């Protein structure tokens, strides 16, 4: 879907903002979804308090990742509908 949406980049003038919004949403979703892997590394570098915090709220990070992914998909679908009207 991202590649298809990127193909519209030379049409009109709103595409850069749309791509920036969907790219940012994807980046935030990836960070939120992968934050649980920090709990594996942080104790090794002496940050066990941060690892404990992340482990304690791991489910919330998963939920934030899923919600932001769904938001990103919805944003891309909306952008595709807008660009098809142009």
Automatic annotation (TrEMBL):
Record field: transmembrane: 27-54, 60-77
Claim: Transmembrane helix is one of the keywords in the record: yes
Keywords (A to Z) from UniProt: Membrane, Transmembrane, Transmembrane helix
Tree of life domain: Bacteria
Keyword Membrane: yes
Protein's recorded name: Uncharacterized protein
Native organism: Candidatus Daviesbacteria bacterium GW2011_GWA2_42_7
Lineage: Bacteria, Candidatus Daviesiibacteriota
